[in-house]
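ok so for the tutorial part 2 we go from a plain amino acid sequence to predicted structure tokens. step 1 is just haveing the sequence, like this:
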Amino acid sequence: MTRRWVGRAYVAAVLLFLYTPILVLVVYSFNASRFSTDWTGFTLAWYGRLAANQALLEAAGNSLIVALIAATLATVLGTLAAMAIHRYRFRGRGLVKGGLYVLTVSPDIVMGISFLVLFVAVGMPLGFTTLVLGHVTFCLPFATITVLARLKGFDAHLVEAAQDLGADEPTIFRKILLPLVRPAVLAGWLLSFTLSIDDVMVSFFITGPGFDILPLRIYSMVRLGVRPEVNALCAILLALTFTMVLVAWLVTRERTQK
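step 2 — the prediction. this is what the tokens look like for a chain of 258 residues:
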């Protein structure tokens, strides 16, 4: 009994340590004072000012577009790559798997500079296209590994049984593999979307002066101090993230129960 309570207290302490700064940010997004450390009353004025900040809203829209495209492309390519790595034996398969794990732990600054050198070398102007290509590239390993982990857990005899019954490869993929890995595909998409929408370091090197995104806009704003509009914007992004996770959990639970 004592050990159980100690474990619960430890988990609660870790969660409190992780989420207290986030809760403080949300609370102070409703603070009437312009200074984050001085609470003077409740207000929604900063959300109104945020709605009137066209530059910030444009940057947020750009970030959402890039994140949606990058997450979708990375998830599609990552799912196909995971299927190929799991089902087929080909030359360089181990090298490909190792390269995926290397990319997940590579420093962002190294990846950002590498992308910059590549795009400059091929003469590609920095902007929306280079940003999407860069985000797809560093999101792809995470989506692939997520789906690959799911594939390793299902019974391979299902595919063999389908082949014995005369199913071809497209039918096996559509009727068996895809329904089984659908939760992992959704998880990979959410992970890729999150990584893309909050990336600063890689985006700093590969975006152009005519295309602004939200993380870089926030970074330029907080260099002179945290403004209340930033708190309000972060609270909205946090609510969006929790909503996406909740929807994904509900969809996964319903399909699991079925």
